[in-house]
From TrEMBL:
Residues 791-984 form the Sucrose phosphatase-like domain. Residues 104-115 have a biased composition (Basic and acidic residues). It comes from Cocos nucifera. Plays a role in photosynthetic sucrose synthesis by catalyzing the rate-limiting step of sucrose biosynthesis from UDP-glucose and fructose- 6-phosphate. Involved in the regulation of carbon partitioning in the leaves of plants. May regulate the synthesis of sucrose and therefore play a major role as a limiting factor in the export of photoassimilates out of the leaf. Plays a role for sucrose availability that is essential for plant growth and fiber elongation. One of its GO terms (molecular function) is sucrose-phosphate synthase activity. Pathway: Glycan biosynthesis; sucrose biosynthesis; sucrose from D-fructose 6-phosphate and UDP-alpha-D-glucose: step 1/2. The keyword Transferase applies. Residues 104-138, 674-693 are annotated as: Disordered. This is Sucrose-phosphate synthase. Belongs to the glycosyltransferase 1 family. Residues 167-433 form the Sucrose synthase first GT-B domain.
């Protein structure tokens, strides 16, 4: 085990202390276990595979004891501590083995079911594009877009794009992000991802065809961080891109946009940001809407310029990008950077924490669900390496390499996938900026001779800091640049160097292992690695041949690469697994050949650069042989150097951006689509005939009257020509009546509540959304009446409108309201079927065409927003098959528990009745079942668990509210949402965001179904109950509601 050299002294101490521990003096714990041999136990249970390096500190304290009795007691306690840890680790490993076995069976079953539904097995045409056929950039080598390399080709490509004016939105929420003087390494949230997203935004902003890039992040005005992180906007100065510099327009270029959300005046880690994600989404949506309008006025001819893509970075931003993509109906990209399931696997393998403990610390289940949602919503997932696809993304329910290949082949052949889809995985390595790099061809001797005559160019200080270690500093330098971490495998490198005499005689070894002041002040893991390295140097007598400086600046790293290159040295990365290997690219840029691990990203880098050798990191002799071969063979060294320098541009930011933009060009354009003369972002105070007529014309084009309130568009239903003509005639008559009504109304008092303008939402100052699920219908009516009465004055003046948000169908709503004497027209809109349908109140009943029609108009534009990746009939068939498998045995007979509810189903909602909620899968398991079969949907149970709704993945009641803002300009911050103490399984969505929330507490709340207890993560991980926008009442009376509204500043007392 690397780093456990202290075990030898520990073992020796146990052996020395053995005779002193006899039956009469040993502890009760030992006597109870009979004959106990600490030595045998230690060898069998610890040395043979248990690495608990934090025990090192305990051992140090034990070894320092002067009293043999106290020393023996401490050693005895350590033995039992290790025994307990080892037992816990084995238990966790066993549980995870069972879990992984079950997961493999589920995936295989899901793959078989998906294949059966698609009516054929993997055909010959679908066997192409196997993993080995993929290039380093994730595309099939057959028919891929040719790489642009020559200057003429680059100019031609630029000319084709220069007329385009793209708006791109990047999102990276956590950490400290700014354009200059980035504080990389300040904390775990401010690392490589921060540098990556800033440089990506800067590079994209300099590309031809890209007009504006917004990098959205969190605004932080905390006393413990620099003031610059509180600036709302920061323009990123363009890089030195001579080939791509173009004129920047009035609002063009790349910008960091900081959105305020979460605790004010406090910088918090990413694990604590989850409850505030919805608040960020609402703030980002407002910014994008405003910027789209501004860009429309500048470059869009008066029409909004919508983002061509929204790109989320890391799980939190992926969750946000998915919601924004759904609200705006624009394509989404996702880059995971590091993945939650992979981290969970690694932590479980360590055996120190259970799954529950890991989730408590890292909120890992919320992170994994966010990554699954990002897979649901993304057109493309950008990865750095093939290893990330095959070993990390393969762990997720929403992605399977084999099924994705099959679906892609079917799409190419034009064969139906029956509602199934998986995002495309594309390998685009991170870019680098190489313009500042100057490669010298001179060797060490020439450099020294030149410096004798030119003392005005002194060597960088770091050179002398390194060379002072060497007896002969002119020998080629083997350079390793990595943390003192066991995973980096530095001790194996030192052993390989120390045991190969020819290599030692030919080269020096330089180890840059971070910065340190004293070994005792380092973390225990790093201290153990460094101590092991120093012991190996002493063991092999490597003094004068190995350098290990204590300090270096980040700005000095290029000088270190230059020194190694001038000595005709080699760069090595011997890590056991390297996810990407950015240092390999940096080394190649300075002309250094490489030796790298064959596990992970270096394989892809080597395939492109062809500038070195790959080795097994566990094979010490192979590492020594590869290093010796490169150092001793000057022709091979020169060839590898030349290949690296020739191909390094393939990892430049311009090259990254060209591949990136080429991917965007393949997307099917998606953006908000409706026909109207102006977007209506502002709430108009006028009620002119023109406004009303314009609205009626809008509605006549985009809203279709639903005669029965259900299945407005029934797939597969064939209507007769006579029926279609009658429907069209009724619709035309309705529009004519509405137009006449508007003309009549315009001659009356324009402030009248009976105005025929559709919809009235854009005229309201506030919108009250009633979304209470945890009550009976009778109590719901009482709550509605209390809310109406609490806002009576504002309701009469027309400044407050009302929306009912529910899982009920529109016909059920109409029946409940009218039977209790509440006119349906008292509401401006109805969010029905758990957010899959949106209706508006039509004019008063005397304007209806016949008594059989319901006074509602359905918004088809909303359906165009949510239909993305809707499985339709293919999803319904899968759900019906699943429902048929859920049965309850009653004697010799079986009763089906889940029944399809055709009456309550609609085009975008598959409804089922659940007879016994205790026998059905919880939401997370049913959602997983669908994802494994490449079906993306939003699964919801009602509050009592008796109803199951399956709707489009990006549809929800909270998303419907965002649509009302996008469509009608109704400010989200002016909405007040009323909920109960619990609700349907989408309850959490109603609690977050910039809108106000009033939680109605009291005995009228019914207890939720046990299905709600089977959550993947606790509710507190996603809801900020301490937010000033959330108020709880002690009842649902008019006074209770008025008091809550006053607390929120909505209504004056």
């Amino acid at each position: 085990m690397p780093g456990n050299d202290w075990i030898n002294s520990y073992l020796e101490a146990i052996l020395d202390a053995g005779p002193a521990i006899d039956a009469s003096k040993s502890s009760l714990l030992l006597r109870e276990r009979g004959r106990f041999s600490p030595t045998r136990y230690f060898v069998e249970e610890v040395i043979t595979g248990f690495d608990e390096t934090d025990l090192y500190k305990t051992w140090v304290r034990a070894a320092a004891m002067r009293s043999p009795q106290e020393r023996n007691t401490r050693l005895e306690n350590m033995c039992w501590r290790i025994w307990n840890l080892a037992r816990k680790k084995k238990q966790i490993e066993g549980e995870e083995a069972l879990r992984m076995s079950k997961r493999r069976l589920e995936r295989e079953r899901g793959r078989r079911d998906a294949t059966a539904d698609m009516s054929e097995d993997l055909s010959e045409g679908e066997k192409g594009d196997v993993v080995s056929d993929l290039s380093a950039h994730g595309d099939s080598t057959r028919g891929r877009i040719p790489r642009i390399s020559s200057v003429d080709a680059m100019e031609a490509w630029a000319n084709q794009l220069k007329e385009r004016k793209l708006y791109i939105v990047l999102i990276s929420i956590h950490g400290l992000i700014r354009g200059e003087n980035m504080e990389l390494g300040r904390d775990s949230d401010t690392g490589g991802q921060v540098k990556y997203v800033v440089e990506l935004a800067r590079a994209l902003g300099s590309m031809p065809g890209v007009y504006r890039v917004d990098l959205l992040t969190r605004q932080i005005s905390a006393p413990d961080v620099d003031w610059s992180y509180g600036e709302p906007t920061e323009m990123l100065t363009p890089g030195n891109s001579e080939n791509f510099m173009h004129e920047i327009g009035e609002s063009g270029g790349a910008y960091i946009i900081r959105i305020p959300f979460g605790p004010k005046d406090k910088y918090i880690p990413k694990e604590l940001l989850w409850p505030h994600i919805q608040e960020f989404v609402d703030g980002a949506l407002v910014h994008i809407m405003q910027m789209s309008k501004v860009l429309g006025e500048q470059i869009g001819g008066g029409q909004p310029v919508w983002p061509v893509v929204i790109h989320g970075h890391y799980a939190d931003a992926g969750d946000s990008a998915a919601l924004l993509s759904g609200a705006l109906n624009v394509p989404m990209l996702f880059t995971g950077h590091s993945l939650g399931r992979d981290k969970l696997e690694q932590l479980l393998k360590q055996g120190r924490q259970t799954r529950e403990e890991i989730n408590s610390t890292y909120k890992i289940m919320r992170r994994i669900e966010a990554e699954e949602l990002a897979l649901d919503a993304s057109e493309v997932v950008i990865t750095s390496t093939r290893q990330e696809i095959e070993q990390q993304w393969q762990l997720y329910d929403g992605f399977d390499v084999i099924l994705e290949r099959k679906l892609r082949a079917r799409l190419k052949r034009g064969v139906s996938c029956y509602g199934r889809y998986m995002p495309r995985m594309v390998i685009i390595p991170p870019g680098m900026e190489f313009n500042h790099i100057i490669v010298h061809d001179g060797d060490m001797d020439g450099e020294i001779e030149g410096n004798e005559d030119n003392s005005a160019s002194p060597d960088p200080p770091i050179w002398s800091e390194i060379m002072r270690f060497f007896t002969n500093p002119r020998k080629p330098m083997i350079l390793a640049l990595a943390r003192a971490d066991p995973k980096k495998n530095i001790t194996t490198l030192v052993k390989a160097f120390g045991e190969c005499r020819p290599l030692r005689e030919l080269a020096n070894l330089t180890l840059i292992m971070g910065n340190r002041d004293a070994i005792d002040e380092m973390s225990s893991t790093n201290a153990v690695v460094l101590t092991s390295v120093l012991k190996l140097i002493d063991k092999y007598d490597l003094y004068g041949q190995v350098a290990y400086p204590k300090h270096h600046k980040q700005s000095e790293v290029p000088d270190i690469y230059r020194l190694a290159a001038k000595t005709k040295g080699v760069f090595i990365n011997p890590a056991f697994i390297e996810p990407f290997g950015l240092t390999l690219i940096e080394a190649a840029a300075y002309g250094l050949p490489i030796v790298a691990t064959k596990n992970g990203g270096p394989v892809d880098i080597h395939r492109v650069l062809d500038n070195g050798l790959l080795v097994d990191p566990h094979d010490q002799q192979a590492i020594a042989d590869a290093l010796y071969k490169l150092v001793s063979d000057k022709q091979l060294w020169a060839r590898c150097r030349q290949n690296g320098l020739k191909n390094i541009h393939l990892f430049s930011w311009p090259e990254h951006c060209k591949t990136y933009l080429s991917r965007l060009a393949t997307f099917r354009p998606r953006h908000p689509q409706w026909k109207r003369s102006e977007d209506g972002f502002e709430n108009s105070e006028s009620d002119s005939p023109g406004d009303s007529l314009r609205d009626i014309q809008d509605i006549s084009l985009n809203l279709k009257l639903s005669l029965d309130g259900e299945k407005a568009e029934d797939d597969g239903a064939l209507e007769s020509e006579e029926g279609a003509a009658n429907e069209k005639s009724k619709l035309e008559r309705l529009v004519a009546k509405l137009s006449k009504s508007v003309m009549r109304t315009n001659h009356k008092d324009t402030s009248s509540e009976n105005s025929s303008k559709l919809p009235l939402l854009r005229r309201r100052k506030h919108i009250f959304v009633i979304a209470v699920d945890s009550v009976t219908h009778e109590d719901l009516i009482e709550i509605i009446k209390s809310v109406f009465e609490a806002a009576r004055k504002d309701r009469m003046s027309g400044s407050v409108g009302f929306v009912l948000s529910t899982s009920l169908t529109i016909s059920e709503i109409y029946t409940i309201l009218t039977s209790r004497g509440i006119p349906a027209t008292d509401f401006d809109a109805f969010i029905c079927n758990s957010g899959s349908d949106l209706y508006y109140s039509s004019p008063s009943s005397d304007e209806m065409l016949s008594s059989s029609e319901l006074p509602f108009a359905i918004d088809d534009d909303y359906h165009s927003q949510i239909e993305y990746r809707w499985g339709g009939e293919g999803l319904r068939k899968t759900l019906v098959r699943w429902a048929a498998s859920i049965v309850e045995k009653k004697g010799e007979s079986e009763e089906q528990i889940v029944i399809e509810d055709e009456q309550r189903s609609s085009t975008f909602c598959h409804a089922f009745e659940v007879k016994n909620p205790a026998l059905v899968l919880p939401v997370k398991e049913l959602r997983k079942l669908m994802r494994i079969q490449a079906l993306h949907c939003h699964v919801l149970y009602s509050h009592d668990g008796t109803k199951l709704h399956v709707i489009p993945v990006l549809a929800s009641r909270s998303q419907a509210l965002r649509y009302l803002y996008v469509r009608w300009g109704m400010e989200l911050s002016n909405m007040v949402v009323f909920v109960g103490e619990s609700g349907d399984t989408d309850y959490e969505g109603s609690l977050g965001g910039v809108h106000k929330t009033i939680i109605l507490r009291g005995a009228f709340n019914l207890p939720p179904s046990q299905l709600h207890a089977a959550r993947s993560y606790p509710l507190r991980d996603v809801v900020a109950f301490d937010s000033p926008n959330v108020v709880q009442t002690e009842g649902c009376s008019t006074n209770d509601i008025q008091l809550a509204l006053s607390q929120l500043g909505v209504l004056k007392e």
